[in-house]
Task: structure prediction
Amino acid sequence: MIKTEEQVLTKEKEYLDKDIIRRRRKLEKSRYSCIQSGIYAGEGLIVFSEVKLFDGVVKIYLPETFTDMPEKIRNVKYSGKNSPSVIKMKEGGEIVFSFQKSTKGDRRLE
Result:
């Protein structure tokens, strides 16, 4: 099959467009490389915010999409007295961070 000059130019433009898009994505990802600006994981940008726990005694950065685990799920997942006092989760519950304030002499740490 013989390609016309227009077809060749169209293919070259397509290639250049894809290359420009790829380079723009790479530049965009490089701008987000720390907790303060956010971090790319795959194609998604994870934005963090400071969360204060235990009356502000502890401050951490968690993804903004994390929320408190609903009581209904919490009761199923963490039954018993040793349930963490703070449980943050990603929607769907596949990633969970739990926190428990301890005191000196707390037997749960032994």
In short: The CA atoms of residues 67 and 88 lie 5 Å apart. The two ends are 76 Å apart (CA to CA). The helical segments are 5-31, 71-77.
